[in-house]
Design brief:
Length: 106
């Protein structure tokens, strides 16, 4: 299950998470974002307990997007121990998304 991230819960859900977290910065009007969303939903279910999947709506959470210098969407950031360890800008196939997170899952 994906977690809706806001400036109010981001630190707790992402920076303090024990699991690696992939965060999807997206918007409703973004067609490539709509291509990535179902892939991340599948991954959130298949890797439950190993990976957390979160999403940030950049139109509603511009402060968070600015905090991580997100200027193009979709932008996917992988966090491990509160730090950004991987980044993917633009839509990508599932195998590419999995390669981003696999090194960080136990």
């Amino acid at each position: 299950m994906k977690v809706d991230l806001t400036k109010d819960n981001f630190d707790e859900e992402v920076l303090q998470a024990e699991l690696p977290v992939i965060v999807d910065f997206w918007a409703d009007w973004c067609m490539p974002c709509k291509m990535v969303a179902p892939l991340l939903e599948q991954m959130s279910e298949e890797y439950e307990g190993k990976l957390k999947v979160g999403e940030v709506n950049v139109d509603e959470q511009g402060e968070l997007a600015g905090r991580y210098n997100v200027v193009s969407i979709p932008t996917l950031l992988v966090f491990k121990d509160g730090e950004v360890v991987q980044q993917q800008i633009g839509a990508a196939p599932r195998d590419r998304l999995e390669k981003l997170v696999q090194p960080y899952m136990d």
